[in-house]
Amino acid sequence: MNKTAIQTNNDTYLLRFSINAHCEAEQLLGFPITQLSEDTAGMTTFRTLLFVGLKFGGNPVPMDKAGDIMEEVIQDQGMDYFSDKISEAINKGLAQQQNSNFKQQHNSKKN
Fold this sequence. Notes:
Helix content: 55-70%
Distance between the termini: 26 Å
Mean pLDDT: 87
Order of helices and strands: EEHHHH
Number of helices: 4
Structural class: mainly alpha
Low-confidence stretches: none
Radius of gyration: 15 Å
Strand content: 5-15%
Number of domains: 1
């Protein structure tokens, strides 16, 4: 599954949103990722998404370290960059799952 790179001036981190990552994020947030909006996307939401994305991207860190990384990314690259990268990672995960579902359905119709 594709990973999304998010960079600071000193480091690069990889984010990944598999099905398990989506489920974990939804459990932590208390609502489906597909319902994210400007109204629900506060700092805690973004930190939680980064925490989960890092975990499933192969770089698990404690929640407070995810906040430190988030702060560094925003300081170095800006909030728009940060939110765009989180969205990109989530969308890659959703697209990957939709593609897998399509292939699975298409192959079952051939049989």
